[in-house]
Specification:
There is one protein chain. This protein is mainly α and about 190 residues long. Helices cover about 70% and strands about 0% of the residues. The chain has helices at about 5-30, 40-50, 55-75, 80-95, 110-125, 130-135, 145-175. Helix 1 crosses helix 2, helix 1 crosses helix 5 and helix 3 (about 55-75) crosses helix 4. The mean pLDDT is about 95.
Length: about 190
Amino acid sequence: MTCYDRHDLGLLLLRLGTGGVLAAHGAQKLFGWFGGGGIEGTSQWMESIGYKPGKTSAMAAGLAEFGGGTLLALGLATPAAGAAAAGGMAGASAVHAPSGFFSTEGGLEHPAILGLAATGIAVAGPGRLSLDHALGHILNRGWMVPAALGAAAVGTATAVGRRNQRLRQAQREAEGGQDPLFEESFDE
């Protein structure tokens, strides 16, 4: 019989806590549970913050959080689960970044720490108290970690980049519709 150590217990607690919070947030988006808006409400909100089309964005965010969080909690397909959750949290961090760091001011503290925890779990692995371990790590190979994190980074950078372009375009239109010919600098 294998004796579980502090490492395994620590990873289990980290997976359950991080995965549980992520899954609950995803359930708000997908199903309207826990006071969430469901797909329709989340779609409208996504459109309002520049993630378009709203329904596709709501589904992607909800699946990254609910699916990634559930899989992290179970310790199943850990590299893909952690990468999906981290990507979703990077997208959320982009929304909260203009408000600074601390969540008390609407900042990115909460999504950033969830994304970092999900990434850390993807890199460290799920530990022996996991479905990945029980299944012989067929969905948790070393090469899967950089592949999953790389794919999530590309997808997230694309989504956030497009959102930022839309927001800049909307700002230009609100200011008169043209880009300035030269940027003014008022350095003293």
